[in-house]
Amino acid sequence: MGYDNRLEEVVGVVALTPVTDESLMAAHLRGDRAAFRELVERYADGLLRYLVHMTANRDQAEDLFQETFKKVHEKAHTYRGPVFKSWLFTIATRATIDHLRRRKRSAMLSLDQEADCGQDSGSSLAETLASEDAPDPADELVREERKQQVREAVASLPVKQRAALVLAYYQQLSYREVADVMGCSLGTVKTQMSRALATLARRLPESISVTK
Fold first, then answer.
1. Longest C-alpha distance within the chain, in Å?
2. Is residue 143 scored above 80 in pLDDT?
3. DSSP class per residue in 9-58
4. What is the spatial distance between Cα 146 and Cα 12, in angstroms, rounded to a whole number?
5. pTM of the model as a whole
6. Which residue of 53, 110, 124, 143 sits 20 to 30 Å from the alpha carbon of 135, by its own alpha carbon?
7. Closest Cα to residue 149, out of 98, 75, 207?
8. Distance CA 140, CA 148 (A)
9. Please, are residues 189 and 175 in contact by the beta-carbon 8 Å criterion?
10. Please, what is the end-to-end C-alpha distance for the chain in angstroms?
């Protein structure tokens, strides 16, 4: 094999080698803006879907999306790997839980101040999940009705159960990865998942499963 052919083969192998998240983070730390944009593009769809499921509000999800990647940029020097996705969703989950707690306190204050209004000051999680802003609207009525029932049931779960469920089912993380993201033990994740699935089993018809 000639030198030129060998060189061409080596270059071809290099070109086919995928760029890892870890190498993109290293490049970002060296000031490569394109590397950071690539990371955002890789995880944009999945992360935004996760945040919409968690907050039940597209606008709030987009705000948290921006906040998450801002923190990724600011905390890049603390990243030690090996799995960037777990690290990213850890940041997103903590930001979301803090946001939901603040929203809950704000809602309680609002209800105290507007007790004579006769209705809640904002839409419920279930109503928002089923709204036009919810992701993946179904084309057929029957499918949409089923999706709505799932959204309502998932939205009714306590926030940590909801996070465990969405990370495992919608983001396809392993229980160990979910535990890393949520900062808890594997046993705690299993307990949260067991409770979440038991609740969904009670609230959903047998013909409906937890789907996207």
1. 86
2. no
3. HHHHHHHHSPPPHHHHHHHHHTT-HHHHHHHHHHHHHHHHHHHHHHHS-H
4. 48
5. 0.68
6. 110
7. 207
8. 12
9. yes
10. 52
